Amino acid sequence: MPHQIALRFEDGVTRFIDANPTETVADAAYRQGVNIPLDCRDGACGTCKCLAESGKFEMGDYIEDALSEEEASLGYVLTCQMRAQGDCVVQVPASSAVCRTQQAALEAAVSEVRQLSPSTLSLTLKDESLNKLAFLPGQYVNLQVPGSSHTRAYSFSSLVRDGEVSFLIRNVPGGLMSGYLTGQAKPGDRMTLTGPLGTFYLREIKRPLLLLAGGTGLAPFTAMLEKIAADGSSHPLHLIYGVTNDADLVDMDKLEDFAKRIPNFTFAACVASPESSYPNKGYVTNHIQPAHLHEGEVDVYLCGPPPMVEAVSHFIRERGIQPASFHYEKFAASV
To answer: What is the CATH number of the domain that holds 293?
Structure first.
């Protein structure tokens, strides 16, 4: 049975290939038109060295000059000797262009546009071709605004289900995408998706997670939580979701449902406005407790506007904590 390999390139492009347990990842990639840098094919030169972020695999024969014992202990592999025994994520230290692969583009129809709040829209796209769309939860695509050549980047807020996938989109006054969605969009309109892209995605869960979302930065986390709900996790997961005004809180029902489906998942929401009537006031940093940081034995994921990213980074440094990993995605609203 073939396994799915996510090849993540330096320029943020991710490509998915299928690899049989008996073939090397390099051979599987070449068979499907992705030219991972390769020279000897015998585990002797190190040209095809990549980093296996997650997944089970077996390695064939190679010499230490090509891959040292220390490198192997850190997860580095030679793709000419790597045989996948399960789904894997592999970092390729080259751009997608060098490997002669282009960003994938798909077309899908607008299924639904909902205004969740004055500041937030939900867009659902549907097409049978989306059932073949593969991405790592947390990644994004570029959506082309119908009737224009312009694109905007949006994170998936769901996994693909029955040919449908969703996005959370900030409603920006005068924004090109916002204007289309609120004034022109109708079911059946065709939109082009290009990607997936981005280095912000859910890694293999090896320790507690702290998830920090600001505004529509909640989107990648609901996709991640869908994946976790399906796969399960034995580690504690805590999400803190911050917005500016009470009306900006969206998808709270989804978070409550995840709390029921994922036994070790908890969440809190907070509102920054002093006029808020919501119980939890202030910024996300006001609600990070020492227990959430697990004395550094924690993976932190953060998606929000640049000031939030800087504030959280400062907050953690100030407390002398060094998380096991800190993944973040900054975003600014596009007009």
So the answer is: 3.40.50.80
